[in-house]
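User: I'm writing a tutorial on reading structure tokens. Could you give me a worked example: one chain, its sequence, then its tokens, then a sentence or two explaining what the tokens reveal?
Assistant: Sure. Here is the example chain.
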Amino acid sequence: MKSCYKAQTQNPLSLNKSINCQVLDLTNPLWRLTLDNLRHDIYHLPEYVALEAQRINAIAEAILITEGDKVFFVPYLLRSCHALFAHQLEVEVFDIISPYGYPGILLNDAASTPEFLNTAFEGFVHQLSHKKVCSAFVRLHPILNQNLEYPCCKLNGETVSVDLKLSLAEIWHQTRPEHRNKINKTKRIGMTAKIVPFAEYIDIFIDLYEQTMDRVGATQSYYFGRDYFIQLSQALKDNLHLCVVELNDEIICGGIFTEACGIVQYHLGGTKSAFLKQAPSKLMFDYVRTWAKERGNEFLHLGGGVGGAKDSLYHFKAGFSKQRHPFSTIRLVVDQKNYDNLVQVRAKALGTSVTELLNSDFFPAYRATCI
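And here are its predicted structure tokens:
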């Protein structure tokens, strides 16, 4: 993959003294102060980014660029490439990735001018180059970033959300008839849904979740472990909610939902294998969209298919709403020379050609584990 953006050796922000660019670590109070003045999601919270950094052994940072009342903010995880290549690298090389979920880039209303966006993005790239970053993979937020275009942007697919500004009758009307029938049937046989304290139900949820991951053959990266869920609860506090579905006093389905700035996100969930055909998760989503609307939220974002594909998971979510959002990623090669070198080393290790590796659509290509 050739770079679609050439990093500049001179800091473009130095040409405009009114623009300020800062790299923030978790201890910098500007991180939280910035979020206080921007519509954001849980993926931007320093506590969440810190948890993700710990999970993948990375460094949690954010870049803040301002000009007057214009604000550009992006959180990320800084990863070393040395361990990946068994310390074969002669120079220190890093890359960045978004925390799990949809962080994207935050902008305030004043920052939406093309001139500021271009300058801010140049400053972002310059900072990455200065930090010896080879590549950047940033997942954009389907709602907060849906009307913005960036260099090196790739459309990966679309996601589904429920428009909570609609009436409950309209929300129900937008539900696929098959889903409506299943929801009504779950109620007739006695299933009920409710929001419960996560800490009290954590072990039950983990069992549901891991049963589901086993059933779908998920990769190891989707198994988070009990410590992760405890820390997630401690990090998000009142922004985290657990919905469970019960039948005859047995919890058969559960889902973690987050809430911030009018956006409720479906995070993770699971269903007992023995009750899969009864589709209790359909009742769960039906309950949560009513609950979320009553709390004054605007969106219940369900997400999309695996990797943005229109697969069975996407088809399931699409049955709850007709509202769609583009899901895009920024795939940026900051240092073409180092990127090419790393791809060559990875291709050799995988026993494939550089061309095949670059054509695999995995980014960054040098982190691919198979072809």
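What the tokens reveal: The CA atoms of residues 252 and 276 lie 9 Å apart. The first strand starts at residue 19 and ends at 24.
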